[in-house]
Amino acid sequence: MTTTTPLTPLTAHLTTAVAAGPATTDPLPYLAAGWIFLAGLHGLVTSRHAVHAIGCLSVLQSGTYVLLLAVGYRSGGTAPYFTDIPPGTPVADPVAHALTLTDVVVGASVSALLLALVLQTAKRHGTADPDALTGLKG
Fold first, then answer.
1. Of 8, 2, 4, which is closest to residue 82 (Cα–Cα)?
2. Contact at 8 Å (CB) between 99 and 127?
3. Rounded Cα distance, 83 and 100, in Å
4. Fewest beta carbons within 10 Å, which of 52, 73, 97, 99?
5. What is the Cα–Cα distance from 133 to 130, expressed in whole angstroms?
6. How far lies 17's CA from each of 5, 32, 72, 90, in Å?
7. Taking a C-beta distance cutoff of 8 angstroms, is the pair 76, 90 a contact?
């Protein structure tokens, strides 16, 4: 004989609120994310300066922010705070927003590390142009 545990009011509210609300079918956010990504990729490929390349990498990563937010968006949804909304209210996907926040933090950390490496490279070699750097000497 199996027994099921009754749902607490908060658990029942979470299951009904997250399941509600269809995902958006509007292609505009996805097209915007692709355009931002391609603009950053073009700048990264054609870059002739290391600081410019890092800026283009940040733009490229902004395209992923827009994509993650578009995936987590729900039509007519509200923010996923479950304390003051009635059960069955459509809410945005909190996992996609948490991934976006994580992506922002990782992007800022990587940009800071890359800028520090460019500063050290410019200090030691006198240039930040990747084509002007010579090979390592032992």
1. 8
2. no
3. 23
4. 52
5. 6
6. 20, 29, 14, 6
7. yes
The residue among 95, 94, 44, 96 whose CA lies nearest residue 65 is: 96
Spatial separation of the C-alpha atoms in residues 40 and 66, rounded to whole Å: 13
Q: Please count the residues of the chain.
A: 138
The residue written with tokens 């399941």 in the block is 19
Give the phi and the psi of residue 20 in degrees, each rounded to 5.
Answer: -85, 155
What tens digit of pLDDT does each residue of 91-135 get? Answer: 888 888 899 999 999 999 999 999 999 999 889 888 888 888 877
Amino acid at 130: P
Q: Is-above-0.90 flag for pTM?
A: no
Cβ proximity of 98 and 114 under 8 Å = no
Alpha helices in 20-135 (DSSP H): 28-45, 50-72, 94-125
